[in-house]
Structure formats: C-alpha cells, structure tokens
UniProtKB/TrEMBL annotation, chains A, B:
GO aspect biological process, one term: respiratory electron transport chain
Pfam families in the record: FAD-oxidase_C (PF02913), FAD_binding_4 (PF01565)
Keywords: FAD, Flavoprotein
Protein name from the UniProt record: FAD-binding oxidoreductase
Lineage of source species: Bacteria, Pseudomonadati, Pseudomonadota, Alphaproteobacteria, Hyphomicrobiales
C-alpha cells in the first residue's frame, strides 16, 4: 500500500458514505483523537468517519480496500499501547464507532445481551444491572472505554479471576472485514463446534483483522453476598500464601485478589481526593480481597472471616479490615483503581503490564526490584495488580527530584531489564494491554519467527490490501 | 494435491523417519484404525506412523509437504464425525500419537500440567488426582480418547457447565505445522495479550491446521463437597425452570445438570448391566443434578436439599433421590453415561449433537418431536444431554420391528428435519462433536459464504501443500 495522503476526491467519497454531518475534519476537533492517554504517540489524520450502521462500516472498508486508504478503528481512545492512534504521516483515516452505541437486545433469562461496538462499558454494566444481572468486566476506564475496543484488546481488569477476560465473556461477534464483507457470527450458544474459531481470532487482534461492530456478551446472576477485605502483610510471598488459602477456601467465590505496595497507599492517600489509609498500622504490602457469593449473604461473611482467621493463624495477615458497608467497599476499590492516576503527580512513570505464572510472583518481584534499582538507584517502584492472575502493573516512578524527560528517555532500557526477568520466568510482556505500536518490535524480537510468520499469514489472508490498522501488532 | 497412492519409495522414506518398529503396515493391524465407532465411514491406508517425539512428527509433516502425501492424525479414534478416518482411496497415511503419552510436567501449586497429545484422558485425570487436583474434562470415552483429539475437537462432556470445554481448560500448545515447523506455544499464563490467538485456532481445527503434540492444561482444587441428585419431573419446561433455580442458588457450584427422557431410563435399565431405576415412581423426564463445593461438604449438602425443597414447593420436582454414597453417585452417572450404548441393542440410531440457547430447549424439544414423528411414526426419540449448556444429543432409535438398514438410510432426511428446527432457534448443528466428514457439506450449506471462505483462507495460509487431514471440516 502506498502511504500517499488521501486526495480531496477520496476524502469526498468517504464523506459521502456517512454524510457530512458524521465526519470530523476540523483539525482542532480531531486533535484529541490523535493522542493517547500517556502521550507516548501523536498521530495525524485528515478525517474522522462516524458510521451509524454496520452497512456504513462495510462501505467504508470496501472503499478503503479499493483505494488503498488505511483505516484506524477507534472507540474510547483509552488504549495504552498506541493501537488506536493513527500514524504521524497523515495518511490514515480514523473510523470511530461512537455512534454505534445501541444495546440491540437484552435477554436476562438467557443471560446475555447484544451490544454494538460503540457502547460504553459502563452503559453495558448498567443495562445488565437494570435487568438484575451482572456484566463483570470492570476496569479503571469503564466510564469511557467502549465494547469494540474492549474486545479488540481482550480487556482484562479486576474481575478476571472469577469471570475471565473479555474473550471469556463473549459468545458471538459481528465483524466487518477489511474487504467490506460482513461476517455475522452473533451466536448465542454456550457450545458450538462448527469449524475454526474465528471469534477468538478477532478478539485481541487490535483492529488489524476487521472492525467488531457488535457482540453477544454473557451476563451473570448478581451476587447475593459481597465482602471486601483490606489486609496488611509483609511480602508478596505472604500474599501468595494467602491467595492459595483464599482460592482453596472460596473457589470461584473469590472475585478479586489485588496486591499493592506501601508506596501505592502513600501515593493514593497523598494525591487522590477522599482516599484514606484503611488501616491504622503501616505494612510493606497489602491485598484487597473481594468475595462474592450466589447462595446467601451469610456465605460471603463466613468466608471472609474464615480466610482472615486462617491468615492470622498462619502468620500471614498482620492486620486487616473488612468493609462494613457498600460505601466502604467502594472506597477500598477506589483506592486500588486510582493507583495509576496517583502516580502522575509524582513525576514520570515507566510502565509494564506483565504476567508470570502465579507461583512465580514473589521471585519475579524480588528479581525485578534488584534489577531496576541497580540500574537506577532511587527509582520508586509502584508495582501492583491482579496477583490472582499473575498480572502485575510494574510501574516505576522517577526518583525524587529527577528530571522527568531524562527519566522517561530510559523507558526502553528499564523495559529491557524487567522484561528479561519476565521472559526468564516464562511470562508475558503484555498481560492485558496488548501490543499496538508500543510493543510490536519487541514482540517480534522475543517470539519465535514461526509465530510472527503465522500471524502475518493470517493478516494477509484477511486484509490483502493492507488497509486495516496497519503497523499495529505486527509490521507488514 | 494429487491423490496418488504413495509409492514404495515414499513409504520407505516415511518408515525411515520413525524406524520400522514404529510403523504398522499389516492390513489386519491397520484395519481397526480405518473405521470409527458408529461405522459410518470406512477408510483405507497403507501405513500407520507412530512417532515418538515432536521432532519425528515434524520430520513426517515436512516430508509429507515435500511429497504431497496426505496425513491423517489419529489419537484415540473415538471421534463421532469421521474426522480421524482416512479417505477410502488409500492415498492417506495415518499419524498416530499413541507413543507420545508422557506427562511432561505437573505443578499442583500452579494448578497445571503439561501433557503430550497421545496421553489418554483418564491418565491425565489420574495424574491430577495423584497431586490432589482435578482435571475436570469428563466424557464417556475417557478411558481411550486422547488429549490431542480432545483438543482438536474442543471436547465437551459432562462438566462443561462449571469448567468449560477443552478450549477453556488449555493454557498453551505445542503444534507441528503442516510444513513441519514447530510452534512452541506452551505458555502457562492466565493472561497474555500478545498478538493473534493462535492457540484457539488450533483447538477445534480437527487436525486440519497442524498436529497438537503437547498442551498445558489447567487443574483445579478437588471439590470438598459433592452431591448428586436424581429428579423425576414432567417436562423439559419443568427441567429448565429447575435449572434456573439451581443456577441462581448454586452459581458455579452447579457442576452438572443433565436431562434424560423416560425411554433412556428404560433402555439403560434393560441393556446395561447393574443399572436400576433409581426411583420407585415413573416420570416422563429426569434430571441428574451434580453439585460440587470447595469450602465444605456441608455447603453441598445444604445446597442440594435447598434446591429440591425449592423444586418441590414450585411444583417442579415430582420425586427425587439424593445419592447417599460415592458408589450411588457413580451409579447415577453411569446410567447417564451409558445412555448412548444402551441404544445399540434397540436397533439403528440416528444421531444429532445440537445446541440451542438454553431458554429455547423446551420449544426445540417439542418442535423436533413433532417433526420427527410426522416423518417417521413410531420413531423412538431418546433425546438427552447437557441441558445447562443447551446441548442435546437428539438421538432417534428405529421404530420397533423396523428394518435397520432402511431406517439408517433416512439419516440425512432426519438430520434435515431436526437441524432446520435447530437453525430456526439460532442453534448449532454440532455442539461438541465437530464437523469432520459427516457435517462438512452441511456446514458449507448453512453458513454464510464469507465464513467458509475465511476458514479456507486460514487453511491455505497454514497448509499450502494441502496435506493436513484434507477433506475434513471444509472442502479444499
């Protein structure tokens, strides 16, 4: 594909497909769509297309394939790896699904709903709640991220432990292929062994194989019992031992197990309005335990008390508090969820989104700390996350008083240190955020050639014109 | 690819790759591998290759691609759609994984094991048990089916309700591609968003995209409490209402919910040694309820009693018995699992393995019965299965005294009747058995062209020489 700037004729033809009212061409209005949250990438684009239907998406991609015009799908623009950001050369058009935000159907009896790709995650949660059901996907950006992006990145979040990633929450998809063809795979079945698993190929493909325009999503009964505990303990090793007890005791009633370091509590209490340290004592590490039960409220109560007793007896729990109200439970989760934002006032932050086998978390934490501090004395490691999934957001705040720009210039260097330890442990350099632009070349470097080659073969088979979010995940 | 008979030179070259001791060329020894369980297909093949390592599998597929020799992977030969059966023209070689039956690693702390593709399912279950863990996949043929086949068909069975299909039980794969290249995707991670989901593409591909030589499988804590109840009730509608109560009450502690008709109880008590009717009363329909709890044995006991009470109060349960011992629980499951075999002495049986959204099961059962009996008065419908998954094995035994051959000649006709009702309900014509040869052309007929075309593009991208189990799932 040529990387020519789209001609005014081509711009007009695209505009005609959705109508002038549904394009954005004013550079000032386009600007916020060209940067992502962390400011790592800045793209350029002459046009944002806002189709109102699957047919319009189809027409756009057909014209794109015909004219060799690259299309970047965008939903909530909350991705963290530059997957939704166009290239800087101004040759790519943005396709925004924001107008396709209908809940097409909701069936509480069958425990499912059908949402369009532009639905905001929080709206899907609310729709489920309105019929007495739970849609469990939950993440910090749920007020603005959208289902199409959640699916395209196989989003994770805080409820993965019990309910799985987005992949596990989806029964069927409607996808517009790069050629403009529409695949209606909106199945509502728990079991269906009829050929290759196309659904899971599109989920997590970060918009490089097609545009997900709608999905059948699973709903769950709302839990009857819910308990949240906040526990102070000595080390990740102690946290892991407590996790094993929790897992054995609660089974799938264990709906969250989040690890946090002392510095994370300091950052949030210092910078996030309304956050207070839940415990009167100071501990090196903390876990937030979330338990949800379906049979009775008493079961959750019994489980949380039994867990803390077992933890105290085994010398794992130093101190703990159980949320006494819904408001207190929310406050504990709010602290955990604001831990990313709380790092911003502390200066630059170099991020990692890694996973290792759960049992290797303590060894990973120790080795990574040693490696990071050897390379950068004074670095403040704020590593927190989903211990139960083996997924740690290994964030490094700059040393106090350091120069932010000079610190951030060492992003790749610090990545190399942390990722080497992750790979040594058989881990992943992107547990839930995806590859996008940020980790594309690194992925190609660490994976066997055959794996990248298989992905490329699939990409070429689905997108022969190379117009679908080119340059993301794999190079063309 | 030419469909020439392999020359003696080619046979010698393949033989040399694994050594003469590890091939089968005696037609009598080959014979049992050329037929499948139901006798629907009879293939021909001059040679069975039994590689002992991933490297040998790689050498075989490389030579196959070079010489254009078709290879049919076979593990336990228990498939029900002819996916493991070579073509009748004698041009295809069988690759048996039976020697690759090592458990390479087992890690109870991390809740996983690594099994080779030739491991028998029951051996994997036992290996898990030996370290105090559960590998939950369970099906009638577990004593002879093997992990490679379980993965390649995305096997289901009786524990899907709580634990999912084989797809949900697998973390990583090692696959030999048709070109002989080896993909090492043996990851042990709960979360890993690094590119296209190759794992799920190979799972369920029925050996057409490569040979699965090893897999990382998930283990679970062994349940502490276990209760099995056998319930007599009036109709599938009553069973569905009871399922909803069970689902709300037990959540993921509901580990089985199987529907059976009266005729199934009659067939099993008549033909299966040791099976007796568990209830003194006669009912039109039955369900087997299986509840497993992780916190205590009392919870399971409490749940099963609460469910039966609720069911009696709501007028859903006519009579019920709770297994009083492990032996009684096993006997109830044995009755359910021998329901397929129990049909054989009753003459011909025309099979369906369908799924519909769970809420549509009663309407489907009624419509299918009407359609089948209108076309074939006297047909004896023995429809049973995994109600909680929406998956019914809709089997039709021949009318008493009918001619078996004439009856079986109407297989496609009866399929057409049942499948039309399934499709009308948004269902699947193969819930868990796959496509193989049996449903290949039917799949192509019912699915949009783009879907079959996408599968074909993937097939060509992965298997350019067309040597990998050709003719299965999709035509070339």
């Amino acid at each position: 594909m040529d990387a020519r700037l789209p001609s005014s004729d081509i711009i007009s033809r695209f505009t005609a497909l959705v109508g002038p009212a549904n394009v954005v061409s004013d550079p000032q209005e386009i600007a916020p769509r060209l940067v992502e949250n962390r400011g790592l990438y800045k793209g350029a684009s002459p046009l944002v297309l806002k189709p109102g239907s699957t047919q319009e998406v189809s027409a756009i991609l057909r014209l794109a394939s015909e004219t060799g015009t690259a299309i970047v799908p965008q939903t909530g623009n909350t991705g963290l790896v530059g997957g939704q950001t166009p290239s800087a050369d101004g040759t790519q058009l943005i396709l925004s699904l924001e107008r396709m935000n209908r809940i097409r159907d909701i069936d509480p009896l069958a425990n499912l709903l059908v949402a369009e790709g532009g639905c905001i995650l929080a709206d899907v949660q609310k729709a489920a709640e309105s019929v007495g059901r739970l849609f469990p996907l939950s993440l910090g950006s749920e007020g603005s991220c959208r289902i199409g992006g959640n699916l395209s990145t196989n989003a994770g979040g805080t409820a993965v432990l019990a309910y799985g990633n987005m992949r596990q929450l989806c029964l069927g998809l409607e996808v517009v292929l790069p050629t403009g063809e529409i695949w209606n795979g909106l199945r509502r079945l728990k079991k269906d062994n009829t050929g290759y698993d196309l659904r899971d190929l599109f989920i997590g493909a970060e918009g490089t194989l097609g545009v997900i325009t709608a999905a059948v999503l699973k709903l769950f009964p709302q839990p009857v019992g819910h308990q949240v505990a906040f526990v102070g303990l000595a080390s990740p090793q102690h946290a892991l031992a407590l996790f094993e007890k929790a897992s054995n005791l609660c089974g799938t009633a264990l709906t969250g197990f989040e690890l946090m370091p002392r510095i994370g509590i300091e950052f949030t209490t210092r910078h996030i309005a309304g956050v207070r340290d839940p415990l009167p004592t100071v501990h090196d590490w903390y876990v937030l335990v979330d338990i949800s039960t379906s049979d009775s409220a008493e079961t959750a109560e019994r489980l949380v008390h039994a867990l803390l007793e077992q933890g105290l007896e085994a010398g794992l729990v130093e101190n703990a508090v159980i949320a006494a109200s819904v408001a207190q439970a929310k406050a504990l989760w709010h602290m955990r969820e604001s831990m990313s934002d709380a790092q911003k006032p502390e200066g630059g932050s170099i991020k990692h989104d890694v996973s290792v086998p759960v049992s290797k978390i303590p060894a990973f934490m120790a080795a990574a700390e040693e490696g990071v501090l050897a390379a950068m004395p004074g670095a403040r490691i704020c590593a927190f996350g989903h211990l139960g999934d083996g997924n740690i957001h290994y964030n490094i705040s700059q040393p106090v008083g350091a120069d932010k720009t000079a610190f951030l210039a060492r992003w790749r260097e610090m990545n190399a240190i942390v990722h080497a330890i992750v790979l040594e442990a058989g881990g992943s350099i992107s547990a839930e955020h995806g590859i996008g632009q940020l980790k594309r070349d690194e992925l190609a470097a660490i994976r066997p050639e055959i794996e990248i080659d298989l992905m490329r073969r699939i990409k070429h088979a689905f997108d022969p014109a190379g117009i679908m979010n080119p340059g993301k995940v794999i190079s063309s």
